[in-house]
Amino acid sequence: MKRILLFLSLCLFVLLVGCTNGQDEEADKEKSDEKSVSLQEQIENLMNENKFKYDKIVDLDIIDDFIYSVSLNHNGGLDLAIMNYNNGTLKWIVGDNSATILQDKGSRYMYVIESEDPDVEQVNVLGEPAKAVTYYDEKTEDYTRKIKYWVAYTEEEPAPSDLEYIKK
Question: How close are the terminal C-alpha atoms of the chain, in Å?
Fold first, then answer.
């Protein structure tokens, strides 16, 4: 009888420990999701605090301790911003509503390249492929504007001669 009672107690203990671990993992996942949402909110709040006007954030890249942002402005153009993210603290570095290249306070150079030529399928900056981004900006139910650009992050400032357009 004691063996049966011991066996049942052991089974109950294993069952409770197993359920508790699953709940802990689920709680950790929820906290992680909240953290990533709060970073997005922090970025948006920081942009607003620094009077950086934008309609939508199109792309965010985190490299080292910096967050690089490309956003769509009210006129349909692309704006650039750089923020520092270190030890959970977000700080404004620089933002520009008309630049195609941006760098400040130890960040990399952020270079955004747009091409009107539909045959361009890749852009290299300083011999390295830039990241291609395509964004669909829905203006109305009947009209969506396709925005295509490339972005590169470099240690040195690229010159126009450092660009290579690769066509189909």
Answer: 80
pLDDT at 31: 53
Rounded CA separation 58/51 (Å): 18
- Is residue 157 within 8 A of residue 163, CB to CB? The reply is no
Structure tokens, 123: 């852009």
pTM of the model: 0.75
Residue 54: alpha-carbon gap to chain centroid: 16
Residues in Cβ contact with 114 at an 8 Å cutoff, skipping those fewer than 6 apart: 78, 100, 148, 149, 150
If the chain, 168 residues long, is cut into consecutive pieces of 10 residues, what is the mean pLDDT of each piece?
51 51 57 62 95 94 97 92 93 92 95 95 97 94 94 96 95
SS3 67: strand
What 3 state SS string does 70-122 have? EEECCCCCEEEEEEEEECCEEEEEEEECCCCEECCCCCCEEEEECCCCCCEEE
Q: How far apart are CA 61 and CA 133, in angstroms?
A: 12
> Phi/psi at 53 (nearest 5 deg)?
-85, 130
Q: Which residue has the tokens 């139910």?
A: 141
Q: Which residues pair with 95 in a beta bridge?
A: 81
